[in-house]
Every structure is written in C-alpha cells, then in structure tokens.
Amino acid sequence: MLKVEQLTKKFGDSVAVDAVNFTIGSGEVFSLIGPNSSGKTTIIKTIAGLLRPNKGQVIIGGYDIATQPLLAKSLIGYIPDEPSLWSGITGEEFLHFVGALYGMDVKARTKKIAELLPIFHLEDIQKDYFENYSRGNKQKFSILAALLHEPKLLLVDEPIVGLDPESAGTARALFAEFARNGGSVLLVTHTLPVAEVISTKIGVLKNGSLLCSGTLEELRIEARLKEHSTLEDIYAVLTS
Fold it and tell me: Which GO terms of the molecular function aspect are on file (predicted)?
C-alpha cells in the first residue's frame, strides 16, 4: 500500500530526512520511533503531501504523491500531531467538512458520523465549537475525521498525547482493527509501549536516517538483546 524510496528532505542546508526506504503492506502497522528531531514528523508530512521531498518517491496504492496527488491522497486518512481548526465551527461541522472534501455526499457522511461518534462518546458535545474542546477531545474528532471516508492508509502522528487512558486504549484498538480489516497504518510515536503492542514492524530513526527496521524480534537480534527485552531496551541500545 505504501512504498517510500530514497526519501530525502532538506530545510536549507540541514538534512531532515536522509534517503529513507520502507514499505507497508495491507494489514500492517509500521511504527517509526526515534529521538526528537530525528525526522519522524517530516516523513509523515511528506507522505501526506504537505511537504515536497528534495529527492525520492512516495507511492500510495500505486499512485505517486508528487504526480498523482489527488488519487494518492484519496486513499489517506491523516491524524496530525497537533489537532487544530479555525474558530466558529462545531465538531459535527468539522466532520461534515472533512467528509465533503473527500467527496462524500450528505447522506453518506451523516450516516458514517452517527456510527463514529459513539466510539469516543462524543454524541453530547458534537454541536459544541471545536475551539472550546480540550486537546483530548480535539484529538478524538481528528481520529474520527481520518476514518470517515474509509481510507486504505492511516498516517498517525503521536495519537495518544492528550488522551485519557480509556480513550488511548480505544485509539490503539481502532488502529489495530483497521489493520486487521486490511488497512495499512504508519504510526509515529514516542510512546514505545504502544508501538510494541500494536506494531507488525518498527523502524528506528536517528538524525534523519533509518538505522534499521523489522519485527520486534528482528530488532532484538539487531540490538543483540535477549528474548523478552522490551522495545524501550532495544531503543536505548540502537540509538545510543
């Protein structure tokens, strides 16, 4: 579903992402982990088409994000690290707006919104203004908006920040179910226990380069650690 080849992104003379390669197939959850400023958010924004790479290629469902952006983006659900929207719009209107952007008619999006709101128990606040929500509730609406048009690829940047424990568990279950149903998930996170639980593959970034990627067991072998070592143990070794 997603192929990233030799992805390179510079900001002036600074190389934020340096020739990164990875693929994500249907049914997979691929987590990118790494220190601050290692290139995680830059990668996800470039895949989403919000940044242009200096070099390399991003293919989503067979479509090149650079040359076929509308077709590629139609397959994406994007959950940013900082949910925000202009003032004067309600949570319900925000969901309708996103659905309309993806070409959903009023009937289809009204039906889907009614199905999604109970996931995070948002029915009672859907008509409140988005600007007045807590960060956690903004995040919940952003997650539902990404799922609204039934994408094939979810791009998720730090989804758990700001969520209470119950909602964080609900979000993890949502992403895992999305993959079980044949979707693909790219998860960027500092919450290593979350990545350890739901990922089928994990990539470790440092200074814009992908140091290694693979299953948890493959990363244990790469780090020369014993069985049952946690992802936090592996991360500490590989990024030291």
Answer: ATP binding; ATP hydrolysis activity
Residues 168, 234 within the same domain = yes
Instruction: Give yes or no: residues 94 and 163 share one domain.
Output: no
In this predicted structure, the answer to whether residue 167 has a pLDDT above a threshold of 90 is yes
Q: What is the DSSP letter of 129?
A: B
What are the CA-CA distances from residue 162 to residues 30, 127, 136, 138, 154 (Å)? 22, 21, 5, 9, 19
Q: Counting beta carbons within 10 angstroms of the beta carbon of residue 27, is it exposed (0 to 12), middle (13 to 18) or buried (19 or more)?
A: middle
Domain carrying residue 191: 2-75+151-238
Q: Where are the alpha helices (DSSP H) in 34-152?
A: 40-47, 69-73, 91-101, 106-116, 135-147
Residue 51: pLDDT over 90: yes
